Amino acid sequence: MYPRVVINKKKLYENSKVVVDMASKQDINVYAVTKVYCGIKELAEESIRAGVVGIADSRVENLIQMKDLDVPKMLLRLPMGCEADQVVKYADVSLNSELSTMRSLNEAAESIDKKHGIILMIDLGDLREGILPEHVDEIVPEILKLQNLVLEGIGVNLTCYGGVIPNPVNLGELSLISSDIETKYGIALKVVSGGNSSSLYLLEKGDMPERINQLRVGEAIVLGRETAYGDPIPGTHDDVFVLEAKIIELKEKASIPRGEIGMDAFGNKPTFEDKGQMKRAIVAIGRQDVEPSGLMPFDDKIEIIGASSDHMILDMTHVNAGYSVGDVVKFRMDYGAMLRLFTSHYVDKVTE
Ligand SMILES: *Cc1c(COP(=O)(O)O)cnc(C)c1O
């Protein structure tokens, strides 16, 4: 069935291995983040084979899909109180910042006689999740009172909302907070979780503060690049995931529409550049499945010129290869495109 995403499992394994090796040289554990591919178990298994210590996802539904994998599981998105029962059942540890939610988790864990791990998130400037550093001493003693929760450590998430880049200063602050908590409350924190794929560049520079011992890595594994500066990671592949779409029309047409121009399918008034007659192809995929600007054709002579809900239009004028109706066009994808492709049930996913 087309369109489809073809996933090369061997390349996924190799990418995972490169990231695990980079991190383990500096005694850092890697959790593989599986949310971008909706927690497909068979794919998570490749990262596990490569040596990640656990898997992490933002949705409980995805963790349920992977429940039989014999590694610790982490819920990345702050839990909703109403899903506490599911969270303690399917996740060993979750990221948290709200005491009321942690109280719900504690009750849920107690009711099934389980201990649930907590990583307390600290906001170091990116302005997504986390308590502010000045509130650590209000919340930690309260968490320690909850008998069925184990405060495993603290963590930070950067470069997600605010685009703040991890560095020795903000991650150093996280390290200091962890030592302060240990001294003040006489406990040992097992985990200091220093972020996502944007923290990897610090490993290569040798600038990772010593206390950081865990990273939660998604994009670097699936797309082979770090995300602080967008650089490829040597030894990884950027084509683990390939989109294949079929040509359903291929014709010579003008580059400018004929008639009065009103609005396009999304309420925008389109503008056009006159490039004369063009060879244009329509492929059977659209905005319902993907964000077209996040796709890169393998054949660099092909240019994506637009898309409506179910049709994507390509300029094939300068293409040398002889395409016909029914042929497949292949694309690389960025993170946003991949997220949408995996969520669309119109797009088949196959492994090779
Ligand atoms: C998505 C997510 C990650 C992984 O981010 P990547 O940039 O894909 O490595 C890590 N931590 C949290 C909390 C996340 O939501």
Q: How is this structure best described in words?
A:
The chain is of the alpha/beta class and 352 residues long. It has two domains: 215 residues, Alanine racemase (TIM Barrel); 111 residues, Elongation Factor Tu (Ef-tu), domain 3 (Beta Barrel). It is 28% helix and 23% strand. It contains ten helices and 16 strands. Strands 1, 10, 11, 12, 13, 14, 15 and 16 form an eight-stranded mixed β-sheet that branches. An eight-stranded parallel β-sheet has the order 8-7-6-5-4-3-2-9. β13 and β14 form a beta hairpin. The longest helix has 18 residues. Bound molecules: pyridoxal-5'-phosphate (PLP). Pyridoxal-5'-phosphate binds next to β9 and α9.
What structural keywords apply?
alpha/beta, binds pyridoxal-5'-phosphate, single chain, eight-stranded mixed sheet, eight-stranded parallel sheet, 10 helices
Number of strands: 16
Mean of the pLDDT scores? 97
Q: List each distinct ligand once.
A: pyridoxal-5'-phosphate
Integer count of domains: 2
**So, CATH architecture of the largest domain?**
Alpha-Beta Barrel
Number of helices in the DSSP assignment: 10
The secondary structure category is: alpha/beta
Please summarize the sheet with the most strands: 8 strands, mixed
Instruction: Please identify the top-level CATH class of the largest domain.
Output: Alpha Beta
